[in-house]
Amino acid sequence: MLHRWFYISTSRLDARKTNEGIQEIVEVSLPRNRSLRVTGALLFTGQKFTQYLEGSPAAIAELKQSISRDARHEAIHTIAYGPFDHRRFLGWSLAYAGPSRFVAAKVEKALSAVLDQGDEEIEALAEMLAGFAIEGHS
Ligand SMILES: Cc1cc2nc3c(=O)[nH]c(=O)nc-3n(C[C@H](O)[C@H](O)[C@H](O)COP(=O)(O)O)c2cc1C
């Protein structure tokens, strides 16, 4: 069975050192997610993170525990957690949207739609993340 965890959080990274902060997260995440066979994407807008993780229920629960107690972000708001029928991502990637005001604005808009309108906007946001993630691979 496959589980997913999809959440939004607010960054507490030092605004002057976000590149280093993101780099540190990625360095730990890539090998750990690979060994847990967890795939997904992390997107950072400069203020907010949104992350989609998919894998075995045990692996998702383990990562959720680690990520939830991480002081580098706060106000973690789960938008989807639980069984899901297929993987949406091929690997784990980082879709970094910080430097692009256009992308950041689009993501912020999608995040508010999820918070305001709920379920039907969740898949739209996940698809947006998938689009960025594929670009991130090429
Ligand atoms: C926004 C954000 C996303 C993260 N994503 C992952 C991730 O996908 N995989 C991962 O192993 N760690 C991720 N981390 C790091 C974990 O929170 C944690 O520091 C790391 O996995 C080590 O776990 P531990 O503190 O339980 O030893 C993330 C941290 C933040 C702030």
**Strand coverage percent:** 25-35%
What is the typical, i.e. mean, pLDDT?
85
Q: What name does the CATH topology carry? A: Alpha-Beta Plaits
Number of strands: 5
Which series of helices and strands comes N to C? EHEEHEEHH
SS content category = alpha+beta
Contiguous low-pLDDT stretches (5 residues minimum) are none
Q: List the total number of helices.
A: 4
Describe this structure in words.
The chain has 138 residues and is of the alpha+beta class. It has a single domain (3-137), classed as 2-Layer Sandwich (Alpha-Beta Plaits). It is built from four helices and five strands. The chain has helices at residues 18-36, 57-68, 101-117, 119-137, and strands at 3-11, 39-44, 48-55, 73-83, 92-96. A five-stranded mixed beta sheet has the order 4-1-3-2-5, with helices on both faces. The mean pLDDT is 85. The structure holds flavin mononucleotide. The site of flavin mononucleotide (FMN) has 15 residues, from α1, β3 and α2. Residues 25, 28-29, 32-33, 42, 49, 51, 53, 63, 66-67, 70, 72-73 line the site of flavin mononucleotide (FMN).
Concise overview:
With 138 residues, this protein is an alpha+beta fold.
List the helices and strands and how they pair.
Layout: E1 3-11, H1 18-36, E2 39-44, E3 48-55, H2 57-68, E4 73-83, E5 92-96, H3 101-117, H4 119-137
Parallel strand pairs: 2-5
Antiparallel strand pairs: 1-3, 1-4, 2-3
Helix pairs in contact: 3-4
Bound molecules: flavin mononucleotide.
Flavin mononucleotide binds next to helix 1, strand 3 and helix 2.
GO molecular function: blue light photoreceptor activity; FAD binding
Domain BLUF: 2-95
Protein name: Blue light sensor protein
